Amino acid sequence: MILAFLESIKYVGHMWPITLLRFFMAIQYFRMASAALAAGLLEHPYLSEQLRLKMESVGVFNAYFSLWSSTIQENWLIVSYVIVCSHFVTAVSYLVGYLVRPISLWAAFLSLHMFWFVETQGDRTQLLAAGIHMMFCLAGAGRCLGIDAYFYKSRRGLLW
Question: If 0-12 CB within 10 Å is exposed, 13-18 middle and 19+ buried, where does residue 88 land?
């Protein structure tokens, strides 16, 4: 496995800028998860309050928004745990380069929903993050300096 890790630099060394971006995103997701824990996201229904404030400015996704907002407002604690755990899992996956493709799809889904449901009108950070996650998925970003290089070499498939 270590040999495959080192050989990944030789075969997909042209992907080192994507690898640096992957490490940066891992650090950002660690920071987002720890900031959510420090802010008390698991102790207070902040998501429900933000959804209630955004209800007035709902546009195209009105039916989809009302479906998700009612579910989130009723189960805010479970959704908060899912968000924080998803941030930690995404950070670890991006850091070690394991299962980057499926995790990046989940992170893009989560980023788009955070953009639609939580963020304000002028802030488009989560939309940019969703684009970066989709790039990771399409490029197979875990193959360079990641554990995915070993699995891609031994078991070719869509996950690696």
Answer: middle
Beta-carbon contacts of residue 48 (< 8 Å; ≥ 6 apart): 72, 73, 76
> How far from the centroid of its chain's Cα atoms is residue 62's Cα?
24
Task: Using alpha carbons, list the distances in angstroms from residue 53 to 107, 108, 116.
Answer: 24, 24, 13
- Structure tokens that stand for 153 in this block: 């070499």
CA distance 51 to 21: 31
The sign of the torsion formed by the CA atoms of 100, 106, 109, 112 equals: negative
Interhelix angle for 46-54 vs 100-117, to 10°?
A: 60
| Weakest-pLDDT range from 107-116, 120-129, 148-157 | 148-157
Phi first, then psi: give them for residue 40, nearest 5 degrees. 85, 35
Q: What is the pLDDT of residues 60-89, one digit of tens each?
A: 567 777 777 778 888 889 989 999 999 999
State the Cα–Cα distance between residues 36 and 48, nearest whole angstrom: 15
Task: Please say whether the beta carbons of 133 and 104 come within 8 A.
Answer: yes
**CA 112 – CA 106 distance, rounded (Å):** 10
Q: Domain residue spans in the chain?
A: 2-154
